[in-house]
Amino acid sequence: MNIDKSFLSGLVAKALKGDKKAIAKIITLIECDPYIVIKHEDILFTNHHEFVVIGVSGAPGVGKSSIINLLIKELRSVGSKVAVIAIDPSSIISGGSLLGDRVRIRYSDEGTFFRSISTMPENDIPWKACPIIEFLGSIGYDYVIVEHPGAGQVDIRIHDVSDILIIVLQPLTGDEIQILKAGLLELGDIYVINKYDLPQAELFYNIVASIIGDKTKPPLIKISTFSGFGIKDLVNAITEVKERLFRTGIIRRRRLRRKLACIKNAILNDLKFKLNELVSIVEGELKSAEQGDVELHELYNKILISLRNNICSN
User: Fold this and answer.
1) Is the distance from CB of 88 to CB of 57 less than 8 angstroms?
2) 184 pLDDT higher than 70
3) Which of 34, 105, 166, 173 is most deeply packed, by most CB within 10 A?
4) Would you say the C-alpha torsion 23, 27, 33, 38 has a positive or negative sign?
């Protein structure tokens, strides 16, 4: 994508002043072509700002969006600027995505920004999210909150892009033994038991506490988004974890981890694109073969030669 540098510079200047339309336009450009971040890094990242990325993950329906809505309000009450990236999976059939997080995340003022971005189901953190995170942090947002579409034992890449990872759980999920499995309970910096007004919440809390109690004892917070109970405790826990990360220097390692994850995602994205091209070549040769009588070995050699020529030419 070719972008006029003066046009982009103008957008960045407006974005640094908090112009949400300019910020949205730049993010749209990044979504359409994430490589513009590499091509125009000198324009997009002229400003340096210290920021923290908070990942919020957990199974679908545990109340991540509702927690984020209350969390934004508390962070804004102490003057922190907050941006939210909500990642929503696309349909494997239609390709469409219901970006419904905005229904629950309603808090908005001059110090907040919200953006939903879609991703294919097999890619819980799309590559385009990485440069968007870095851009939002660079233009002055103190916290960039990334809402994960829902994690379990395998889709845990949210861990790689977060400075602080919040895992949201809820009681009455039907099978408490699932939380014992490797995955989320080995990765979180803060754990939240949401919907604490539900029956058996205290029992569930004790189960989770017993599981994570033998490790470094990360904070375990009780929350009810219905009443707002526990949100201040969550903000205090975030502050304490943040201070520890800076004090110990762990924050630098986590930022490096995020940059490496972004590079890895970019490489995988390129390889996937190239693989799709090669698959298209094979499909084309097979369709051509359907028009005539071709021996299997002849078809194999023809496809192999086509693939080799395509790879060598690139």
Assistant:
1) no
2) no
3) 166
4) positive
Q: Under DSSP, is residue 28 helix (H, G, I), strand (E, B) or coil?
A: helix
pLDDT tens column, 234-276: 999 999 999 999 999 999 999 999 888 888 887 887 787 777 7
Nearest to 142 by CA among 98, 79, 218, 215: 79
CB 223 within 8 A of CB 230: yes
List alpha helices for the chain, DSSP H: 5-16, 20-32, 36-39, 41-44, 64-77, 101-104, 129-138, 158-161, 201-212, 231-248, 250-289, 296-312
> How do residues 28-44 score in pLDDT, each as one tens digit?
999 888 888 888 999 99
> CATH 3.40.50.300 in the chain, residues?
48-248
Q: What is the pLDDT of residue 92?
A: 44
CATH 3.40.50.300 fits 48-248, yes or no: yes
Partnered with residue 182 across adjacent β-strands are: none
d(CA 268, CA 136): 24
Query: Could you tell me which residues are beta bridge partners of residue 193?
Result: 169, 222
- Going by the DSSP 8-state scheme, the letter that residue 20 receives in this structure is H
Apex 54 CA angle, 52 and 56, nearest 5 = 175
Query: In the predicted model, is pLDDT for residue 149 greater than 70?
Result: yes
The residues with which 54 forms a beta bridge, in sequence order, are 145, 164
Joined together, the tokens standing for residue 291 give 């028009």
What pTM did the predictor assign? Answer: 0.83
Q: How far apart are the C-alpha atoms of 266 and 290, rounded to whole Å?
A: 37
